[in-house]
Amino acid sequence: MCPLSLKTSDSTQILATGKAKLWALLVGVNQYQDESFPNLDYSAMDCRELGIALNEATAEFPCKQILIHHDFAAELPTLAAIDRQLQWIATTAKPQDTVLIYFSGHGVIEYRTYQAVLCLQDTRSDALLETGLRMQTVLQRLETCEARQQLVWLDACHSGSLMMRGARDVGERMMSDNPTVQLVQVLRNRAAQSRGFYALLSCDEGQRSWEFPELGHGVFTYYLIQGLRGEAADNDGVIEADALYRYVYRQTVQYIQQKNQQLRALNEEKRLRRESPLYPEYPPQTPKRIVEGVGELVLGMISPDAIGSQSPPSASVPTLSLPSHSTVEASPEPEPIESVLSDDLSDDMSAVAKTAMPPTVASSTTAPAPGTGDTTILYHHSTAAVTTAPISATSNRASNTTVDRTLISNRPWRPYIWIAGALMGAAVLLPIAWSWWRSNSMENAESHACNIKADYVQTGSNQRFDAQILLDNCEAGGSWQQVRVQTLTEHVGPVWAAAFTSDGNTLASGSGEVVEIWDLRTQTLVRTLVGHAKQIHAVDISPNGQTIVSSSGDQTVKIWNLATGKLLRTLEGHTSTVWSVNISPDGQTLATSSSDRTIKIWNLATGELLRTLEGHQDWVFAAVFSPDGQTLASASQDRTIKLWDWQNSRELQTLTGHNNAVRSIGFDPRGERLASASWDRSVRLWDLETGEVVHTFTGHTDHVVSLAFSPDGKTLTSGSRDRTVRLWNVETRTSMATLYGHTDWVLAVDFSPDGNTLVSGSRDQVITLWRR
């Protein structure tokens, strides 16, 4: 269980008055000059995002200095730079100030002296004490610092079974897979000397700090960030160090447990099919706190009104009745969620349901306010961990269950039920229950749905449903239905990419480390392409439908034969994660973009590298060809979009205006306009002739990470970290629809060639098809 908290005073409230200053030094190291240290995937992003969250949480503190050093920052995480900052803080901070030191990267033990060493970008394994940041040095600097309140956060146990050079045999291993023993010892010594010292470690002795692609962070730092964004704030909006620790502790432990529940479910299915090997489970990770007499260290002040805005608060859900008549009515009286099984389904499912784990039922949350339209359509399902059916939709329960019974009898349900109880944040809809409800209720409701009584759907009301469609304008939005293609495959991982073939019959998706090929006519997985070593971030299919290209965090691009699944060639040249792939309209050229800040142009048929485009100052998230193939557009974390004459390696224009990273871009079918999605929560439409912003679409409440134009160019869709898919009318420049159903970031969206189907892929490991 999580240890109890200790509190003595609230003296650091003076931070909010400006009488004291907050000093923060944040360090994250992904890539090491010494090849003996394996590169990490998320430490730099951990540092960057933690800095943003800390800056937001301390917005009310008038006096602060946040120093950030990571691979992609202006100040790199070298020993000279970090030691210089430590000395400056130690000699400048005043007694009433608070000092925070954060490190994410490798932590190892020097095998001769058994000192704990934090490995920086230029640390050498054969000279750890001379080139690494000794933990004892950090604490010595803090000991000479006058600041009475000192915090140290370490996410430094990523090394696994790393063996340092110079170790003569196994007996002289660095214990680098567990530097925590030495870290705990020196931190305890420091805590005993100072009542204001507070240390957090990502894991306890003998454990490892885990990173998960679906989080985009180490799990420890991910929840530090969420806590600073308000999840650990009290009712007054105060984020206190010990409350933050308790939040991080519980969330980290729960996440690892739930990942293991998923793996057990998959292993159960593999046992039923007599397949091996089974998936290994993650060993536990329990964050550790080191403190003797902790004060009430205030880390941030969030407006009480904003608490929960990052992830919506719990709320009761009104019952929706969907009888077989012409009007869909929202009940004015909210009622608690109920788990309802139809009589017909319960006979088939009750025995299986008894074997399920205790479910984790998602609480419903507040929906964004409806738009300017006069009516709002709500298609509702009840939330239950084992199965779902509409509350009160009893009038035509039995109308469509014959086929469903047949499907149920032929499906290995138990693993899916276990997964439904294990996934974080929300229940997973079982496909048959969902299909049953949709066929029962939607047929009768669709043609008259715009007659809904909106009296009880007020702006700001707590009416939010886990799988609903909110249409702000019925005529403009049309009627989009949700059809689940996949709940969870054997390949556990987020869906970062999705692409249709030109005939619309086949879908390719990047899930975890594999590419999956789906036949949409039968909604079956027909082929799995295995070869990447890390998370796949992008896929694209050639215009002739013969070739598929994928890119990954393993720094490679792979070209496959779509029909046979054969790997044709692997393209190497990027030195970091490859975020995007795009095939030119004539099918001859491939563009790729990477965290190494470059765009590479390849001959698709031969794999020859034709040229490298350089100019961005940070990660390049996307590179796409114009419809005529003459222009290439690129989007970067440096907040800019660049247009290129790629055949002559010439930069044509730089588009500026976004206030954060530009994550996704796309040309309209005529090549006259460009759309961009940004972490600044907006989607912008650009006139390419003038380079000016035509319109800014707003409505997402978190980072926008994916977008796509419809084939006719009249509709734009976007996916966001706020878990929604939005549809925008390009001509009227209004919001058409908000599609709910995903329980995590929507990482990929795309339209089918006929424009009647929309696919969305999410970090919740689900692919969803939305059909008009």
UniProtKB/TrEMBL annotation:
SMART domains: WD40 (SM00320)
Highest taxon of source: Bacteria
Record carries keyword Disulfide bond: no
Gene3D superfamilies with a match to the protein in the record: 3.40.50.1460, YVTN repeat-like/Quinoprotein amine dehydrogenase
Pfam families named among the record's database cross-references: Beta-prop_WDR3_1st (PF25173), Peptidase_C14 (PF00656), WD40 (PF00400)
One record GO biological process: proteolysis
Keywords: Coiled coil, Membrane, Repeat, Transmembrane, Transmembrane helix, WD repeat
Coiled-coil region(s): 249-276
Biased composition (Polar residues): 308-329
Keyword Mitochondrion: no
Protein name: Caspase family protein
Native source species: Thermocoleostomius sinensis A174
